[in-house]
Structure formats: structure tokens, C-alpha cells
Specification:
16% strand; alpha+beta; globular; 4 strands; 4-stranded mixed beta sheet
Length: 186
């Protein structure tokens, strides 16, 4: 009887452990998924434009702010500009606002899709404003900058002296203006 009980107990314990090994903890994060770092969304890539007047005004406003606080000026970086322009176009085309697009690409993945050789830390500030038809380009840039200054995490990126390169992308959809600013440092 003892042998039968012991065998039944071992079998039940084995089944219980096997069930635990195959079931996922509902609190644990899901397993990581592979995010595309080889290409950017095709429609956004085709629609992205650089050298927008608002892009230039925002770049100047950001560097003016950094000069006032003693941070070094940011240099323009063509890889960051392309990644920022595509992200702004993507937000406008697919009607979302966030650091990660619907495909899961974040700032680092977008930069690597532009240049797989890119090295350094990446940070990103986003802005979306509406109702700016009666504002000048410089006023819109100032409104976007003020929004970033008033946000602790965005202000941290603006003020970080380790970031020495930047790229800004602007896109419009209807009355909405989307801005992406990428920062890079060592």
C-alpha cells in the first residue's frame, strides 16, 4: 500500500511540475518579439520630407534654449534627421502618437533601419499640436519647445549635455503637426 501511495504521489507531482513548466505566469512579461531594424514603414518612408521651415525653426529654438542653460549646441545628423522625418510621417499617415509605431519599432530600431552602423545612445522627444493656422513658424516652434520644457522627461533630453547630435522631422495631417526630435550621444 505504501509503495502504491508513493508511486501515485510521484506521478501526481510529476504531472503538476510538467503543467507548471508549460504554463506562463500571467504576471510575467511576454517573451520578446523581433522588431524590424532592416527597414522603415514604406508609406512613411516615401512621404517623409526633410528641411521643413518648422524643422529649422525648432532646431534653432532648441539650440537657443541649450545655450541659455550652458549645454553645448546640437549638430544636425542626417541619419537622425531621416529617422525622425519618417517617424513623424508615420504618425501622421497611420494616425498614432507615440515613441513606438504599430509595428513595435522604437527610436533605436528606426535609427538602425537608416544606418545599421549607427553607434551611440538615442533619446527622442515628440510633439503634436493642432490649431496653429494663425501662428508663425517661429511661434509653433516655441510652443513645441515649451511643451518639452514643461515635461520632466522631455526637458531631461533637451538639457543633457551628453547629447551632441540631433535630427528633427516634421509632418502634417489636416490640422495636426507632428514633430520628432532624436538625440544621440556616446
Amino acid at each position: 500500500m505504501t509503495m502504491l501511495f508513493r508511486s501515485g504521489f510521484v506521478l501526481a507531482l510529476s504531472l503538476l511540475l510538467a503543467a507548471c513548466a508549460t504554463s506562463r505566469d500571467p504576471v510575467a512579461p511576454p517573451p520578446p518579439t523581433r522588431v524590424n531594424i532592416a527597414s522603415l514603414p514604406a508609406a512613411a518612408s516615401a512621404a517623409a520630407r526633410t528641411n521643413d521651415p518648422l524643422e529649422r525653426a525648432l532646431f534653432a529654438a532648441v539650440n537657443d534654449y541649450r545655450a541659455k542653460i550652458g549645454a553645448p549646441p546640437l549638430a544636425r545628423d542626417s541619419v537622425l534627421e531621416r529617422a525622425a522625418a519618417v517617424h513623424s510621417a508615420d504618425m501622421a499617415l497611420r494616425n498614432f502618437f507615440g515613441h513606438f509605431n504599430p509595428d513595435g519599432q522604437g527610436p533605436k530600431e528606426r535609427v538602425l533601419a537608416v544606418s545599421s552602423q549607427f553607434k551611440g545612445r538615442i533619446a527622442e522627444n515628440l510633439s503634436m499640436v493642432e490649431g496653429m493656422k494663425r501662428r508663425t513658424t517661429e511661434q509653433i516652434a516655441e510652443i513645441m519647445l515649451r511643451g518639452w520644457i514643461n515635461s520632466p522627461s522631455h526637458r531631461k533630453n533637451l538639457r543633457n549635455a551628453d547629447y551632441v547630435r540631433t535630427g528633427i522631422g516634421i509632418a502634417r495631417h489636416g490640422d495636426a503637426i507632428y514633430a520628432t526630435q532624436l538625440y544621440a550621444g556616446p
